[in-house]
Write a structure and sequence with these properties.
Layout lengths: L3 E8 L1 H21 L7 E8 L2 E4 L12 H6 L3 E4 L6 E4 L3 E8 L1 H4 L3 H17 L6 E3 L2 E10 L2 E16 L2 E9 L19 E2 L2 H5 L5 H16 L4
Parallel strand pairs: 1-2, 3-4, 9-11
Antiparallel strand pairs: 2-6, 3-5, 6-10, 7-8, 8-9, 9-10
């Protein structure tokens, strides 16, 4: 059992979305035909030019600025077919799109999302950051532990997926050195009472995004294949 990998460098969102859709359709066709495949799918990594995406269950009101102003800043906006609400993708952020057949991996959608979270938690732990899950909120979060209480929740990684016949697309976005001002123009993932952060902000130092990418892909591949 193996999973393929391709790094796309920097790519506009629409172009990458079309590539995802092509790989997704091909994986579904392989599954429908009963043809043999040497792998379970492909993991794509990419940095996008500035773009906001709104999931199918998201609220337009979570975009806090007019679309015309957004475009004047050099950002794009797309309604897309993943779960979740609104988020931002841009430079300094690793976006990871696994196009996978979960039935071949022997896992369900909930397990899949948990393994995405596990891979991110393990990756940021390398930098001394304790990632956590927050009940009712998919993704990876950071919080401050004060006098036995958890305070100041902030998201470091957003997750939103689509699955059909156990084939996945979309995925996760890990903030490495992202300019966080972009998130001030939205209610990130629909939340108004929680913040957003990045690896570099949490540790107060520059981070090599390629190093993080290598760690993330290795941890995700191990998590998906359930390798200890």
């Amino acid at each position: 059992m193996k999973v393929g990998y391709k790094d796309l460098g920097t790519m506009p969102y629409k172009e990458c979305w079309e590539l995802q859709q092509s790989l997704f359709d091909s994986r579904l066709e392989i599954k429908r035909s009963g043809a043999e495949s040497e792998d379970c799918g492909t993991i794509l990594t990419v940095e996008h030019t500035p773009v906001y995406t709104l999931g199918k269950s998201g609220k337009q009101s979570n975009m806090l600025i007019p679309e015309a102003y957004l475009k004047s800043l050099g950002a794009e906006f797309f309604h897309i077919d993943r779960g979740g609400d609104i988020t931002f993708h841009g430079p300094g952020q690793i976006v990871c799109y696994p196009i996978l057949d979960l039935s071949r991996l022997g896992i369900g959608l909930r397990q899949y999302i948990e393994r995405l979270e596990d891979a991110v938690i393990k990756t940021i732990a390398h930098y001394g950051i304790a990632g956590e899950r927050l009940a009712g909120a998919t993704g990876v979060w950071i919080c401050d532990h004060v006098a036995g209480e958890q305070k100041n929740w902030r998201k470091i990684c957003a997750i939103g997926v689509r699955a059909s016949h156990f084939v996945t697309m979309h995925g996760l976005a890990l903030n490495v050195a992202t300019d966080l001002k972009w998130f001030s123009m939205i209610n990130p993932c629909g939340f108004t009472d929680k913040g957003v952060t990045s690896i570099s902000k949490e540790i107060g130092a520059a981070v090599d995004i390629n190093e993080v990418k290598t760690l993330l892909v290795a941890n995700l591949t191990k998590a998906l294949l359930d390798e200890k």
